[in-house]
């Protein structure tokens, strides 16, 4: 029976340390904020999978439509031996690329990189069963720290960063990330980048504030993570989910709004955190792009936009970039 390999790229206590650091920084800042990566414990990853099936949340379906139409073309252009995927989650859409590259016969190795060990384990398990000849080397890492590119994965490599996750980085973080991604590439490698596109505000807001309340539960899940990991005493019912479109910065912002004045204790940090009534905690930005912005940001990082595809409705963009 084939099996997979799982590497923890970061020191054992990295996530605990990073969480403490982020919570200390973010909850003592004004306005308060937390990085979105803390949404994704096992429950959060499940809720995200549920989001991808919501009628309002079009990005996953739009990206899958593009991949379904273009995977053979992507395989033919890249002839990748190794597929690296940053923020791989369930690896659900990746199967389209794995199929096309296997059919072409170039693929030998798949390297999924994700912060969620539980998501990696279940993805790697089903992939090894489905692709017995494929070497699966899962890497638990935060893609902003380690890209999983360094340790000799055979080229040509295709680095996929799908789902619009690039949009979760602030503009300066994004520039730094793209530059370090570029630094890890060799001639013949390519990057496949999925980005959500600017569109009518109503459509964007609905995608982040669905009628069934799944995104609200996903947003509030970060409070449960803090309760469990840091002995905090957040009552998620005392916060409201907020999604708004910032037209100037061209990003969606998710926030949690305190329903009343309250003081929450973060026991393991010895930190009392006061919220005024109506005060908001920013939990995520999700930037939306245009063809020119993508081309410009890739160029600024030393890459060239070689191919650009969208879904029929023009909601989502898939870029193939080369060093
Ligand atoms: C998968 C991180 C790109 O920003 O759209 C979904 C996460 N947040 N609903 C996104 C998310 C709220 C998603 N990313």
UniProtKB/TrEMBL annotation:
Enzyme class: transferase
Origin superkingdom: Bacteria
EC numbers, comma separated: 2.1.1.44
SUPFAM superfamilies for the chain: S-adenosyl-L-methionine-dependent methyltransferases
Residues annotated as binding S-adenosyl-L-methionine: 87, 93, 114, 142-143
Annotated InterPro entries: EgtD (IPR035094), EgtD_Actinobacteria (IPR032888), EgtD_Methyltrsf_superfamily (IPR051128), MeTrfase_dom (IPR019257), MeTrfase_EgtD-like (IPR017804), SAM-dependent_MTases_sf (IPR029063)
Residues binding L-histidine: 57, 168, 208, 284-286
Pfam families: Methyltransf_33 (PF10017)
Catalysed transformations (reactions): L-histidine + 3 S-adenosyl-L-methionine = hercynine + 3 S-adenosyl-L-homocysteine + 3 H(+)
Pathway where it operates: Amino-acid biosynthesis; ergothioneine biosynthesis
This protein's record includes keyword Methyltransferase: yes
Annotated keywords: Methyltransferase, S-adenosyl-L-methionine, Transferase
Gene3D superfamilies: Vaccinia Virus protein VP39
Domain Histidine-specific methyltransferase SAM-dependent: 20-321
Signal peptide: none
The family this protein is said to belong to: Belongs to the methyltransferase superfamily. EgtD family.
Its biological purpose: Catalyzes the SAM-dependent triple methylation of the alpha-amino group of histidine to form hercynine, a step in the biosynthesis pathway of ergothioneine.
Cited NCBIfam families: egtD_ergothio
Subunit structure: Monomer.
HAMAP family, A to Z: EgtD
Protein name: Histidine N-alpha-methyltransferase
């Amino acid at each position: 029976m084939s099996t997979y390999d799982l590497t923890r790229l970061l020191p054992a206590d990295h996530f605990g340390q990073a969480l403490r650091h982020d919570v200390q920084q973010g909850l003592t800042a004004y306005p308060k904020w937390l990085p979105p990566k803390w949404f994704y414990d096992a429950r959060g990853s499940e809720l995200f999978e549920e989001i991808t099936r919501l009628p309002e949340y079009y990005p996953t379906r739009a990206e899958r439509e593009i991949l379904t139409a273009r995977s053979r073309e992507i395989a033919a252009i890249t002839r990748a031996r190794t597929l690296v995927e940053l923020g791989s989650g369930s690896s659900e859409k990746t199967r389209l690329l794995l199929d096309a590259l296997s059919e072409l016969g170039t693929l030998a190795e798949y390297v999924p990189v994700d912060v969620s060990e539980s998501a990696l384990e279940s993805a790697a398990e089903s992939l090894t069963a489905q692709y017995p000849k494929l070497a699966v080397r899962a890497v638990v890492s935060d893609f902003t720290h380690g890209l999983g590119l360094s340790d000799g994965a055979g080229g040509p490599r295709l680095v996929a960063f799908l789902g619009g996750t690039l949009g979760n980085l602030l503009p300066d973080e994004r520039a730094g990330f793209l530059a370090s991604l570029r630094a890890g590439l060799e001639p013949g490698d390519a990057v496949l980048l999925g980005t959500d596109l600017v569109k009518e505000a109503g459509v964007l807001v609905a995608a982040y504030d669905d009628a069934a309340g799944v995104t609200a539960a996903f947003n509030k899940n970060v409070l449960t993570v803090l309760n469990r990991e840091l002995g905090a005493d957040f009552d998620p019912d005392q916060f409201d989910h907020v999604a708004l479109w910032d037209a100037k910065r061209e990003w969606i912002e998710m926030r949690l709004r305190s329903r009343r004045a309250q003081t929450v204790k973060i026991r393991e940090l010895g930190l009392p955190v006061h919220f005024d009534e109506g005060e908001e905690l920013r939990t995520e930005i999700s930037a939306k792009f245009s063809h020119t912005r993508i081309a410009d940001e890739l160029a600024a990082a030393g890459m060239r936009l070689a191919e650009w595809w969208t879904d029929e409705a023009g909601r989502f963009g898939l870029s193939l970039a080369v060093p």
